[in-house]
């Protein structure tokens, strides 16, 4: 791998402040994780774009690569090397969207690596073609983050075309059963959630105004096609995109299209995505189908219900507060408690395994100093001596974990530590 940026500013300005703000072990893990992304995950090509592996899988996920860079965004104006790196990754993400907006993970070249035997419209560029709404949110989010913080526009050359492509897909997927041609089936899936039912068509849905997703941010199939965290994320990035095309491209028609779709999706969430739970009140569902069905849970991946204020969703604080209490309790079927940790896990990983990503987001969305301190302690004591975060670990034995190298988890830990240390929020 090519180290895409120096560590000079980080080592001289960031590390010392963190060391003075958190316990020694937390600071050691932070420095290891914060350096790892820059030193080990990025390869820059001759076209001034950058391929970013997710970790121990040699592919670039649109979603993961955005969150992998998230903790660095606050330093863009202080470190021009970081600014250039984010622009390089953003250009690569946008190029991938134009190759196939239904794909979630890509190869560094047209080398036919990955799941080429899946029954869907694969190409040699694609590692995996699981359609996920958040995979299209991520490139907009990163492009906006760079532009809004620095004024940089070199990465926005193709942004109008990228946005129009995304708008077209999300409009089609508002009417998935009637209009979409997307199909996905995997022979001999490792688990049932690795493929779609109904001959690859996926879960049936009625119109809600939201946009349908085949898979969750975990890459697991949705139970019901309208994933609420994904749609909330879409509302946010559509408004970001509208600002870009208005200010940079002066494209008022495209701006209006983005804003209109954002309003429709938001209204769909408020109308169909909130359910009443006896004894608790109104909370956000995790998924609904527009046909009267919903699922009450939260998943450890990002976006999640837990992460809504982290993403910028603040429509109804009382509804979020009740939702948070619900999902951080045994009411959530993926809440686990054990001898060394308690937190949110995922159907993507074994039972009783919690995710450092979810623990970090819990800390980032908490106003309770004691809760935040306990989460930092838990994360610092459950790395199994590796100096890195993992995808998940057993709540009763942190030596048992999944994925030895998962850069997204490293990034979310770093974001929590920076927040805990008093660095300005993103």
UniProtKB/TrEMBL annotation:
One of its GO terms (biological process) is carbohydrate metabolic process. GO terms for molecular function: hydrolase activity. InterPro entries: 6-hairpin_glycosidase_sf, 6hp_glycosidase-like_sf, GH125. Keywords: Hydrolase. Gene3D superfamilies: 1.50.10.10. PANTHER family: MEIOTICALLY UP-REGULATED GENE 157 PROTEIN. This is Glycoside hydrolase family 125 protein. It comes from Bifidobacterium fermentum.
